[in-house]
Amino acid sequence: MSISYPGSNPDPAPGTTILAARRPSVLAMSWTETHKRWAALREVRAEIERNGELPWSAELADIFGTPRKLVLALQYFWTLTLAARVDDATELDGAGVARLAAQRFTEQNTGLRHVLERHSPSLAAHEQRIVADFGGHAYARTPA
Predict the structure, then answer these.
(1) SS3 content of the chain, % helix, strand, coil (to 5)
(2) C-beta of residue 57 within 8 angstroms of C-beta of residue 87
(3) Which one, of 104, 111, 110, 141, lies nearest residue 126 by Cα?
(4) Residue 86 near residue 131 (C-beta atoms within 8 A)
(5) 129 C-beta neighbours (distance < 10 Å), count
(6) DSSP string across 32-59
(7) Does the reported pTM lie above 0.85?
(8) How high is the pLDDT of residue 57?
């Protein structure tokens, strides 16, 4: 039995899933590949904190493909971690601490923040939405 969705290809290419055939932006990763990717992101973040620059190498190219995809992965990490920190702080101490939690996270990751600002101009607006959604207050960034 084949399920077809409007605009989808009911017969995906051999070796692909229906989801991958419909959504080429979705990557199928094994558990090992996922761990390798997160380990590489940890190393990249450490390197950024040491020298303030986005690293690039053949190994990173094998994992992420392009520097832009590496930046997108770093943005995902930033957004996910910021939302978790703000949510935890709000749940434990109330809405007023959302901004403080965001500022503390930024202070702990200044190198990454600067790299992301250079490569992703919309980052600040996105942060403001996260803090407002979780804490109900606008995020007032401290000058760098």
Answers:
(1) 65, 0, 35
(2) no
(3) 141
(4) yes
(5) 12
(6) HHHHHHHHHHHHHHHHHHHHSS----HH
(7) no
(8) 96
